[in-house]
UniProtKB/TrEMBL annotation:
This is Tetratricopeptide repeat protein. Signal peptide: none annotated. It comes from the Bacteria. Pfam families: TPR_9 (PF13371), Transglut_core2 (PF13369). Transmembrane segments: none annotated. Residues 52-199 form the Protein SirB1 N-terminal domain. InterPro entries: SirB1_N (IPR032698). It comes from Streptomyces galbus. Belongs to the UPF0162 family.
Length: 283
């Protein structure tokens, strides 16, 4: 199965500009950011396609029963609509597809990774007026409804199954070997969700060296998010060198070395040595 082909350089630059603008907005729009990621991956996703994806989220929200009630009723209503009526869910095979991390494709296929299926749940529920938020459990993203003292969790990857406390603990233990901690149940901010989506795309690409182009644009989008990890600069430098941009990649690594020198001089020296080796590849 071939993954999507990217847009033209001009279109990609415009998408990055819009992504940066939205990421720095006072209230970043999760659906807009995820759709811009999709457009960066898939050159066939034009403005009409972006609008169609938003319209589909609106349409689904219009089918949610009016004000279902308490958090458990909201979770059940979304499960009945998205998981049962429309068949949104995931499987092990979805982890092998780039499309599983692209919101527009998940809306078409009704299949995706836990976090992208959760984005569908979040955006549909939010439009319908639900008290909803993402919950970034280690290794498995789910959706929460209601305040902490009444919190109800649902797993969109499993068709929206409503989770008991024991179910959530099993998910965390399976991913980390450690038990569920209350701190893991706090709502995830939109930009946290976006960075996790981009991390998944980078992980997909890292297992496929021939798709370093995907890894590069995912890193570059992550760098546009405020307060991103400085190490992304180093990763971008490595990818540029891998793709033959030796000087630009070396410069990026040298800038990263300068940033970390004050806290880890040894790391800075190792990165500078790597940058020097990259420059030598020009000879």
């Amino acid at each position: 199965m071939h993954s999507p082909e990217p847009p033209s350089p001009e279109r990609a630059a415009e998408l990055r500009r819009r992504f940066a603008e939205e990421a720095r907005a006072e209230r970043p729009d999760l659906s807009v950011l995820c759709l811009l990621i999709g457009a960066q991956a898939d050159g066939t996703l034009d403005e009409a396609g972006l609008d169609a994806a938003q319209a589909e989220l609106d349409r689904l929200a219009g089918e949610v029963p009016f004000r279902p009630g308490d958090p458990r009723s909201w979770a059940a209503a979304l499960r009945d609509l998205l998981g049962e009526r429309y068949g949104y869910r995931g499987s092990a095979a979805d982890y092998q597809r780039l499309e599983s991390s692209l919101l527009h494709s998940v809306l078409l296929r009704r299949r995706g990774l836990p976090i992208l299926l959760s984005v569908v749940w979040l955006e549909v529920a939010r439009r319908a007026g639900a008290p909803v938020y993402g919950v970034a459990l280690p290794g498995h993203f789910v959706v929460g409804f209601g305040p902490r003292e009444e919190q109800v969790l649902a797993d969109p990857f499993d068709g929206g199954r409503v989770l008991s406390g024991a179910d959530a603990d099993v998910l965390v233990v399976g991913a980390t070997g450690a038990p569920l901690e209350p701190s893991m149940l706090v709502p995830a901010a939109p930009l946290e969700v976006v960075l996790r989506v981009l991390n998944n795309i980078r992980a997909w690409a890292s297992a496929r060296p021939e798709r370093s182009d995907v890894a590069l644009w995912a890193v570059e989008l992550a760098l546009l998010v405020p307060s991103q990890p400085a190490r992304l600069r180093y990763e971008r430098g490595q990818l540029l060198v891998q793709r033959g941009a030796f000087v630009t990649g070396a410069e990026e690594m040298e800038e990263y070395a300068q940033l970390v020198e004050v806290v880890d001089e040894g790391l800075a020296d190792r990165v500078r040595t790597e940058a020097l080796a990259a420059r030598a590849l020009m000879n």
